Amino acid sequence: MPQHTSTSQSPGTAGGAEAVLDERDEEETATPEAEEETTEKETTEKAVRGESTGEEPAAEKSAAPEEPAAATAEAPAEPAEEATPQEAPAPATPRPARRTWTGWSAWSRRWREAHPELSQAFSVTLTVLAAVLVVAALVLPNSVVGLGPAKFVRIPGEAVIGAAVILALPRRPRIVLAAVSGVALAALTVLNLLDMGFNQYLGRGFNPVLDWSLLGDAQSYLEDSLGRTTTLAVTAAVIALVLLVFVLLALSTVRLSNVLARHTATATRGTLIAGVVWITCSSLGLQISGVPIASDRAATALRWQVRQARNTLRDEAEFQKVAKVDAFGNTPGSQLVPALRGKDMVFTFIESYGRSAVEDPIMAPGVDKTLDERTQALAKAGFHAKSGWLTSATYGGSSWLGHSTTMSGLWISNQQRYRTVMASDHMSLTDAFKKTGAFDTVGVMPGVQKGWPEQKWYGLDKVYNAFQLGYKGPKFSWSTMPDQYALQQYQDRVHSKKPADGKARMSLLILTSSHQPWAPIPKMVGWDQLGDGSVFKGIQAAGNQPADVIADTTKSRQEYGKSIQYSVTALTQWLERYGSKDTVLVFLGDHQPIARVSGNHASRDVPISIVAKDPKVLDKIDGWGWTDGLRPAHNAPVWKMSAFRDRFLTAYGSTPHPKKG
Hints:
- This protein is α/β, with parallel strands linked by helices.
- 52% of the residues lie in helices and 9% in strands.
- The chain folds into 2 domains: 122-217 and 247-309, no CATH class; 331-651, Alkaline Phosphatase, subunit A (3-Layer(aba) Sandwich).
- InterPro entries: Alkaline_phosphatase_core_sf (IPR017850).
């Protein structure tokens, strides 16, 4: 007959239960319910093994006196009560995922117990790094101007308020709030970094409503300047950095909230002290190196972003009404620019030709010398010029905003306004010539490398893009071809051919050789040597690499100045070589170069010149007060770029017939 016992278990049963209990004892964050459940299970296991639980069983307390041995012998033997498996509850089998986490937790705890000092140092280091990261994100400025250590040794009021709220919350809401705050802070950090980039390159902050599309343009610019492989690597690195910022800030805020919760008393005192210090510093205006110690940078940035988004949406609605009003909108074609009938009109934009090129100590000497020399050369050919200043609607980039502002007479300072105007029937200056019926209109756009629906709004009968000018030479970074080649193609394909029906011609040219990164830069060659552009291969190969110029601010300024000299020389040599007694050239810059070149406090002004052989053309603008020659004086009149269209139309005899929305 098999033997049974109620005080022993098979190794598989008892050992498994003890292993599970040992594993659960290793957990660092066991809940009270879990501890209670574990205690109950331990009690049950001990009862199964016959171990004492600290209390005598009731049966033992009321045990009867022992029976005589004889009586015991006579009594029939009762079979021992068998202990069934049901009497000992089977241990729960842990899930694999739980076992894995528990194993890691156990290993971590054993490591901490084995290396207490190293563990403590590591924990403190992580906490300090999390605090530094969060504080840095809270006080991060949105501009590189004045960026220094003083900007990061400030007391962020948002951190003080956040700590007070965290201390008042129970565990689960506390963790949720900390994680959400970390994600929000990461988003604000990314916006601040975008602001830095936009302020440095475009002279304005990032607009989260309108500017996302410009990131694609930036990627295209990098690909043209640095190559596809480098651009892909940079793009991947930027994406990884953004994701890392979100992850690290979320983990950091959660970790700091846990530290505060574990040391409630100390954290409460510290928060009160920090709050008093912040209020004191704010009230007294205390500063370090000119930077206020008490900071509310994050709250200010958030308010600014909200206000900017609200103003952008309001501006869109208001500008739609403004675009419908046009002082010359109902003027008959017969009353538009009568003083320019029969003239060979050429409007030209020179990329990034800004006031800094004429007045900056580094760029100006070479550019001013070129302007003076070309003024004299044109005078020998019978051409004279007057020059002034226009304040551009854009800065550092987004050239199309400068083009459309000049031609529309409207202040087109963002992408939404540009889309609104392009979809409207507001008359452009170029379209005014078309409406006369006396001019053919044509555009030469070596920078256009895809469909260009804006052609309709500009009123251009024909447009030559980068692929329609027959160029077989190398690209010069972003620029698809040298300006000299584009001008010769304009001469061969357009200017040398008389329009049909005895009409005159109005041309719009946009030159690109002075586009950043200003490396490599083309050089002038003999006009009769241009051919298909292959002559530029050696010049391109011998030029600077874009990466070398981009990384050096001084070299960027020097090379920018050289690119302006090249573009002005190419344009004025074309005029000197091919211009006639009826040719009228209007050329100007679309915007200043980026802040790294023009300076963080540069104006938005660009030079503009009108050149002609016919003295009557310049006599019409004699009252403008512009400077004689191609170089405008420092004190020459400055107009908003949006004022040029109506002043030009009025000067040359156009009669206003307003169109009201």
